[in-house]
Amino acid sequence: MNSEPITQESSQRICNHMNKDHQDAVNAYAEYYGKIKRFRSARMISLCPESVQLKVDDKTLDIKFDHILKDCSDAHKTLVKMIKAIPSE
């Protein structure tokens, strides 16, 4: 990740990476930030400077960030910070 701006292309690349390599994190975002405990599937579908959008079964969730993302590097750091903030059971 670098200081590349968040564009439609970089959003798609980040979402594809998260869905392919970090499905456990995407599920955790849906459960914790989306407050959805039972679902069949969760996919990250879009990321913009203000929020990340997840498709959870037939619902679309918009999870707001705690700040406006500056670039792709900030997106990476923020998504990691969000996963680390989820209490372990």
Overall residue-averaged pLDDT value: 95
Query: Which H/E pattern describes the elements?
Result: HHEEEH
| Rg, nearest Å | 12 Å
Helix content: 40-55%
The total tally of domains equals 1
Count, helices: 3
Strand arrangement in the largest pleated sheet:
1-2-3
Give the key terms.
about 90 residues, Split barrel-like, three-stranded antiparallel beta sheet, about 20% strand
Question: Can you give a write-up of this model?
Answer:
This protein has 89 residues and is α+β, with helices and mostly antiparallel strands. It has a single domain (8-85), classed as Split barrel-like, CATH 3.20.180. The chain has three helices and three strands; from the N terminus they run ααβββα. It has a three-stranded antiparallel sheet with strand order 1-2-3. The protein is globular, with a radius of gyration of 12 Å. The mean pLDDT is 95.
Topology, element by element:
Elements: H1 8-21, H2 23-32, E1 42-47, E2 51-56, E3 59-64, H3 72-85
Quickly describe the structure.
The protein has 89 residues and is an alpha+beta fold. Helix content is 43%, strand content 20%. The protein is built from 3 helices and 3 strands; from the N terminus they run H-H-E-E-E-H.
